[in-house]
Amino acid sequence: QILEENNLPVSTTSSILSTPPTPTYTEHINIDEDF
User: Could you report the per-residue pLDDT of 3-29, keeping only the tens digit for each?
Assistant: First the structure.
């Protein structure tokens, strides 16, 4: 529930900052964990 709620604000912030979407960030974390 917290993640879903945080996803909404994060998506808006990402759009404002013109940064990559949240999925990209998650993928980066997954890669780090894989390593």
Answer: 555 555 555 655 555 555 555 556 666
- Spatial separation of the C-alpha atoms in residues 10 and 33, rounded to whole Å: 22
Instruction: Give the containing element (helix H, strand E) for 19.
Output: none
**pTM (whole model) above 0.70:** no
Structure tokens at 34: 């894989």
Question: Please, what is the Cα angle at 10 between 4 and 16, to 5 degrees?
Answer: 150
| Rounded Cα gap, residues 12 and 8, in angstroms | 7
